[in-house]
Amino acid sequence: MEVVRGEEMRDELTPIEVAILEVLEEGSERAAGVAKKTGLNSKSVWQALQRLKARGLVACDEKFGIYSITEEGRRRLEDIRKSDFLKNYVEMELLLMRYIDLTRKRLLEPKELEKMRKFFEELQSKRV
Q: Torsions phi, psi of 56, nearest 5?
């Protein structure tokens, strides 16, 4: 399974969608709770939840507005975890999204910056 930026292919998962599935794997949540746990803005999270729901990867109790991961969502998340590169890519993409999210004015922690530096060094070493 490939993770892509944006919505180039409807069947593929974006880094935000992967992060949401990871949160929901820990337990059901409202959209606001998912946003808080991922560190992403609530509008982006809500839009991603709607895409995931339309693809059958999450379910929503409409009465209470609580989202949960489906079995298909768990399977797709496991496919991504099988690839270390994709997992690292998703983590780095999320760190970058958090960094540039000016509405939250959140700066990266030194540990996060070091993780990014190591990841980009690894990418550079693999270039031909």
A: 80, 20
